Amino acid sequence: xxxxxxxxxxxxxxxxxxxxxxxxxxxxxxxxxxxxxxxxxxxxxxxxxxxxxxxxxxxxxxxxxxxxxxxxxxxxxxxxxxxxxxxxxxxxxxxxxxxxxxxxxxxxxxxxxxxxxxxxxxxxxxxxxxxxxxxxxxxxxxxxxxxxxxxxxxxxxxxxxxxxxxxxxxxxxxxxxxxxxxxxxxxxxxxxxxxxxxxxxxxxxxxxxxxxxxxxxxxxxxxxxxxxxxxxxxxxxxxxxxxxxxxxxxxxxxxxxxxxxxxxxxxxxxxxxxxxxxxxxxxxxxxxxxxxxxxxxxxxxxxxxxxxxxxxxxxxxxxxxxxxxxxxxxxxxxxxxxxxxxxxxxxxxxxxxxxxxxxxxxxxxxxxxxxxxxxxx
Amino acid sequence: xxxxxxxxxxxxxxxxxxxxxxxxxxxxxxxxxxxxxxxxx
Lengths: 377, 41
Fold this sequence. Notes:
Mean pLDDT of chain B: 66
Distance between the termini of chain B: 38 Å
Order of helices and strands of chain B: EHEE
Number of strands of chain B: 3
Low-confidence stretches of chain A: none
Number of helices of chain A: 15
Helix content of chain B: 10-25%
Order of helices and strands of chain A: EHHHHHHEHEEEEHHEEEHEHHEHEHH
Helix content of chain A: 25-40%
Oligomer: heterodimer
Radius of gyration of chain A: 23 Å
Shape of chain A: globular
């Protein structure tokens, strides 16, 4: 059996080797691939990588490190194909492109970051909905108003302010001095077409990937040899429909069933792979069967689903194409000129993770305060 | 989805420590791939 689960070498930084010894011991990369990667520190400075993660990693370390280390680790975060993804939007990797040797820079960064004695991840016990509830409570306690289940149709100028037209029966029009638009880029494109056609057209070109998440509670102790493992990623050349499997009950103590079963969270679909059928055509039962078949094959263990839940996320992952930062800076400049007081933030713009979105929210809030202060002076 | 521990410490939202669960210290991840395919080329 040549296809199997392989441990990733120790000491990687988002898949980038920080030393040759651990890579040499790995059975994930071939001898030829290891020799190619080991040459990295003595290679001359690479030519243009075109702001592409995949191109940069292949230039420095060769095809195998890109396909079997960096692409699974980075691609799984963004549901992306690193051969078509912006290097600048993965700051840890973009930093490595600054020096002469990416391996030596990665090693330096790894050594200078203090080893944590405590777990590096936390999550709300009640699920991530706890976060949105906490935000809602904070806004309401400060006298804010939240309107849900209401679609914004259009935003247009109304004298020195903005008119927001919604599909609400009771309150269809809202006048605002300043607006932060945080919806997915294509939805924002429709809203903003009357304000700035150029911005609207640029936002409409943003690509998104869809993902299906299948959560499975297995029957009792099917995968005993995987106890303690956080999960696995499927390298693209060996993918069918499953891209990653998280052993949720190994990662989180509060998820551990008492009957010896396991909870798996299985991701299907990504940018550049056929996903439309998974979202729009396949019934839940077929998705669960596919997951069980693939995971059984990957782990070489017969797995049976006890309980399952399917969640579809259509167009949920914005794809940062090479040149993304220049693209959004152009959008921001145009909007600042055409529509002062209107700001865009959110996952489509400067980062998909929760911390990146919170940071964008805070920066936008500062921009609104500055704008309103200026307006009143 | 998991969230970096540093994020919760930075965020000023009413989520007390008691409502948070800790994840693994060093996530142990493996990759499913064809064993050393390049050896055969």
